[in-house]
Specification:
Blueprint: H1 3-27, E1 35-36, E2 60-61, H2 81-87, H3 91-104, H4 109-121, H5 129-141, H6 145-157, H7 165-177, H8 181-191, H9 199-212, H10 216-228, H11 236-248, H12 252-264, H13 272-284, H14 288-300, H15 308-320, H16 326-331, H17 337-352
Antiparallel strand pairs: 1-2
Helix pairs in contact: 1-17, 2-3, 3-4, 4-5, 5-6, 6-7, 7-8, 8-9, 9-10, 10-11, 11-12, 12-13, 13-14, 14-15, 15-17
Length: 353
């Protein structure tokens, strides 16, 4: 692939950097979480195909760097009029009703938590993380798990309060003890970096709870633990099943992991076409690793028909995010100029989508 071909996309990136950056943040690229691999390349059948070398970029997260913390969201009590207004987008009405309830009952924890959420999000009223923390703290002291989780999230990020991971962890502990799934997930992430003897086992138990609540990042994280045999008995089939659930719930990391497992037949029957489809899903959502792997498949004709233009387009997109691949550079080096132009057009079109 010619230097001018790469240079053209780099120049375009300077123009579209802001929009593409937003796309990457929404996609939640797994390149940001510290990656290692549990599958050497795309094939592990004893005969790695020449077109898919075994030194391919890393894909799987390690148990110590699996994902980002969950974000607090309100959980409305059944039949709650104030939360009902919140759910309908009537935020000022929700604020007024919650305030009225607190005037009648100063110990109304659901109203406190809702006021915290409205202040935290700036819905119907000016955003004020300090006031949000105050309301969350009042509700958390009265045993509200949602408030404890939300307060822990603010403390972890240092929004409206001093940043203190230790204090945040205590709030997540409070919520997790009540079975709060997102708090269980956040606490599990903290435990994965803990040196305590039973930390990894406890993290696995918490991730099981969060995975059952269909939190996709927890499903992916738990799958990684099963794949590595960390805190649980190693079980490739269980790992693959969790990766697939995570993928179906929107996890890009889960989609990539499941694609790798499906391609290699690790814990699940080998199916290169389905593997390519899962790579494609994540690639269209901006995942650089999936874009790179899909490019390799198009060069090798594994799971898809050989298509060097498609390979070049996906390679350009992955490279634009910093994931370089000299093997693909060499494989696509002799692409005709008209095919280079078409690949660039497709890459830019997908980047702008």
């Amino acid at each position: 692939m010619s230097v001018s071909f790469h240079h053209a996309l780099v120049l375009r990136n300077a123009v579209t950097k802001s929009a593409f950056g937003r796309l990457c943040r929404v996609a939640g690229l797994v390149l940001a979480v510290g990656l290692i691999t549990n599958a050497q390349g795309l094939a592990q059948d004893g005969q790695t195909p020449a077109a898919v070398p075994s030194d391919a970029p890393a894909t799987a997260a390690s148990p110590e760097g699996i994902g980002s913390p969950a974000i607090a969201e309100p959980s409305p009590p059944s039949g709650d009029a104030a939360y009902g207004a919140y759910q309908r987008g009537l935020f000022l009405t929700a604020f007024l009703r919650a305030t009225d309830r607190l005037e009648r009952d100063p110990g109304d924890v659901a109203a406190m938590t809702l006021l915290g959420e409205l202040h935290a999000q700036g819905l119907g009223i000016p955003q004020d993380f300090g006031k949000a923390a105050e309301w969350y703290r009042l509700a958390a002291r009265r045993g509200d798990a949602n408030a404890a989780f939300a307060l822990g999230s603010l403390v972890l990020e240092g929004r409206g309060v001093e940043r203190d991971p230790g204090v945040a962890r205590r709030h997540f502990e409070e919520a997790a003890e009540q079975g709060h799934a997102p708090a269980s997930y956040n606490l599990a992430l903290m435990l994965l970096n803990d040196d305590a003897p039973d930390a990894i086992e406890r993290a696995a138990r918490l991730l099981e709870r969060a995975a059952e609540a269909e939190i996709p990042d927890a499903q992916h994280a738990l799958g990684v633990l099963y794949a590595h045999g960390r805190g649980v008995q190693e079980d490739d089939a269980r790992a693959a099943a969790l990766y697939r659930r995570a993928a179906e719930n929107g996890s890009l990391a889960g989609a990539v992991e499941y694609a790798i497992a499906r391609f290699n037949g690790i814990g699940v029957a080998r199916d290169e076409e389905e593997a390519a489809e899962y790579f494609r899903r994540a690639a269209y959502r901006g995942n650089a690793i999936a874009q790179n792997r899909l490019a390799r498949l198009y060069v090798a004709g594994r799971g898809v028909e050989v298509d060097l233009v498609e390979a070049a387009a996906w390679h350009l997109l992955a490279s634009s995010q910093g994931l370089t691949d000299t093997w693909l550079d060499d494989a696509l080096n002799e692409l005709p100029e008209e095919d280079e132009a078409e690949a660039e057009r497709r890459a830019l079109e997908r980047m702008d989508a």
